[in-house]
Write a sequence for this structure.
């Protein structure tokens, strides 16, 4: 019988797996898959949103009703944005304010960043992860996932929005 270390040498690492929003980093290549109740209602549950992989560019604000641009990216990840805008993050309203959950705090933080620049440098809009589609029929276009009014991460699908899961 083999022991743990002998088995570990024989096994290969997984090439696919689920990725959480908290673990996203620029450069990651992922599949975005529809999931949740809204996806079941629209009949797209389990389908790839873009028909291929996406490459993560970063975290930013995309103006309401406008397409994403690379200039909307303001940081690599949440920790990077907190360090860049430390003076806003350390305000009493953001740090110790009353929020429903972490997404609500994140949305308030990004709106405060936009308010600090009067919407010029950082636009008012959706707090989102921006990515570039690298496979499929929409190859080369930019898209994003955003925090909805229900404080859930969602992607835009045609005229609707659905929850999603990320797989590497």
């Amino acid at each position: 019988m083999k022991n743990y270390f002998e088995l570990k040498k024989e096994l290969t690492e997984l090439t696919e797996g689920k990725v959480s929003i908290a673990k996203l980093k620029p450069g990651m290549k992922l599949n975005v898959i529809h999931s949740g109740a809204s996806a079941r209602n629209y009949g797209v549950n389990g389908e790839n949103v873009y028909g291929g992989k996406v490459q993560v560019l970063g975290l930013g604000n995309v103006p309401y009703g406008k397409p994403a641009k690379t200039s909307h990216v303001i940081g690599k990840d949440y920790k990077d944005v907190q360090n860049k805008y430390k003076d806003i993050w350390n305000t009493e309203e953001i740090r110790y304010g009353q929020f429903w959950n972490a997404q609500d705090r994140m949305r308030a933080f990004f709106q405060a960043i936009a308010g600090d620049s009067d919407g010029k440098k950082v636009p008012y809009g959706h707090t989102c992860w921006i990515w570039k589609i690298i496979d499929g029929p929409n190859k080369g276009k930019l898209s994003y996932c955003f925090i909805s009014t229900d404080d859930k991460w969602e992607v835009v699908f045609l005229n609707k929005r659905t929850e999603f899961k990320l797989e590497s």
